[in-house]
């Protein structure tokens, strides 16, 4: 599952973060939705992470985001968890990270203790022996 709630949300949030007036940013959402629908097909119109998270049912779910992600605003994460099942495990990593794993450890995520422990605990508790 992606950390963005929908393409149009990321686009709009990014415009607002770039200090574009909110009214103008929100006016772009339908055009962004139209663009992605034409690009990815009409069956993609109703597909977005903030909607699809509802389809997880009883399956294990872990949702992670960093508090100051420079690429995908935190508001996207908030939209997803609003629709997430109660059993979803949530991890908010403090800081300015786009990839949840610390940047120095991107190629060696096992060196990021907080990240690797969180992932391994989730996997072991749901899929371990």
Automatic annotation (TrEMBL):
InterPro entries, sorted: AB_hydrolase_fold
Protein's UniProt name: Uncharacterized protein
Organism: Clostridium aceticum
């Amino acid at each position: 599952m992606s950390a963005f709630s929908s393409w149009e949300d990321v686009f709009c949030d990014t415009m607002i973060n770039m200090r574009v007036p909110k009214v103008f940013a929100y006016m772009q959402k339908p055009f962004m939705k139209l663009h992605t629908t034409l690009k990815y097909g009409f069956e993609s119109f109703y597909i977005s992470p903030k909607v699809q998270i509802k389809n997880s049912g009883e399956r294990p779910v872990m949702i992670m985001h960093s508090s100051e992600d420079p690429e995908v605003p935190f508001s996207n994460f908030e939209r997803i968890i609003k629709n997430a099942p109660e059993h979803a495990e949530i991890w908010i990593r403090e800081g300015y990270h786009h990839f949840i794993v610390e940047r120095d450890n991107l190629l060696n995520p096992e060196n990021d203790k907080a990240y690797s422990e969180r992932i391994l605990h989730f996997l072991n508790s749901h899929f371990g022996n």
